[in-house]
Amino acid sequence: MKVLQFTIPVAHDKSVITDQVELPYHYPHLHRHKEAQLTWIQRGEGTLIAGNNMHAFAEGDIFYIGPNLPHLFKSNPEYFKSEDHRPVKALTVFFNPEGALSAMFDLPEMRAISQYLGQHALGFKLPARNTQSIAIQMLAVREATGSKKLLAFLELMQGLISVGNKPEALSTHGNLPSMADNEGIRIGNIYNYIMQNYNGNITLEDVARAACMTSESFCRYFKKHTGHTFVSFLNEVRVNEACKRLTSHKFENVSEIAFKCGFKSITNFNRVFKSVTGSSPREYLDNYRQNINSLSQSA
């Protein structure tokens, strides 16, 4: 039994794999694989589902995803419209600490790196202050050949642990129940349905019907495989979209954003937003602006 297990194509003469993609949208199915990955979003926006949590992603973001952590980079709806022609672009470095590289990771000199990766198996988003240097190192790994690729990879690992031990984990659960391939696809389809209809009057009955289940069966199934209730997942999708709109510089007011994200009242929006993020929409936006200003001043 396994969650939609994805096999990374590994050349017989390589232990570190780089994958440069430029496609209409990201791979659209929830999946996991034995390799850890470091992904740099070079172009595109959307939502990353990792384990039982979700996070907005945009151009310039870099994410570390640990081995066997279920994940999905879900491109925004506009990327699925053929007339828009907005391809995504991303660079990913894949490596398996338990595979061909296991002997290297067992070396005493690698203990700090091995421990760091183990402590952050649930993944994390790199702080903005580290993305430029890590991106340069990822490019170096992509361009290097032979033994130089391995040396560039070691430099990348050293850069990764320089982030420190403060990044917030992408997921709060790494041990969600395993599932057969068809169940992984089914959960991915449920995610897609909710994320395509979150801004309307979507109900539990609607989603259960789309999944060909009764409401009671769907509730048990969804909770078991995601750690979420339907309502908590829907609220996170809506708040995640609201966060993206708040920071998109499109000059929408908070009330307009709330209604566009499926909330029927500003009071309910403020309450749910604070329960998910820990801050009010205004506080969230103020913190975002302060972080941007701090980064620009330190640049």
TrEMBL record:
Domain HTH araC/xylS-type: 188-287
Keywords linked to the UniProt accession: DNA-binding, Transcription, Transcription regulation
Family matches, as Pfam families: Cupin_2, HTH_18
Xref: InterPro entries: Cupin_2, Homeodomain-like_sf, HTH_AraC, HTH_AraC-typ_CS, RmlC-like_jellyroll, RmlC_Cupin_sf, Tscrpt_reg_AraC-type_HTH
Keyword match Oxidoreductase: no
The protein's name: AraC family transcriptional regulator
Species, as recorded: Mucilaginibacter roseus
